[in-house]
């Protein structure tokens, strides 16, 4: 099951690199965390970690773009 989840995440990152921003790091952290929670939770942890990592990367990119616009305006 873990191999299927990892393969799906890798396919996602290859197919759409812009959508995978933060996903791989989040999936790795979530997968490890899920593994320590209990048997079978590594895949769920990886999926949630991917979503959280992607969200955090998107927020960081938005803040960075805002800072660049503010800096260019002055």
Sequence of secondary-structure elements: HHH
Mean pLDDT figure: 79
**Class by SSE composition:** mainly alpha
Number of helices in the DSSP assignment: 3
Tally of domains: 1
Largest sheet: none
Q: What is the molecular shape?
A: elongated
> What's the β-strand tally?
0
Could you estimate the helical fraction of the residues in percent?
A: over 70%
**Strand content range:** under 5%
Distance from N terminus to C terminus (CA atoms, Å) equals 53 Å
Quaternary structure annotation = single chain
Name the poorly predicted regions: none
Q: If you compute it from the alpha carbons, what radius of gyration comes out, rounded to the nearest whole angstrom? A: 15 Å
Q: Any key phrases for this structure?
A:
74 residues; mainly alpha; 3 helices; 84% helix; elongated
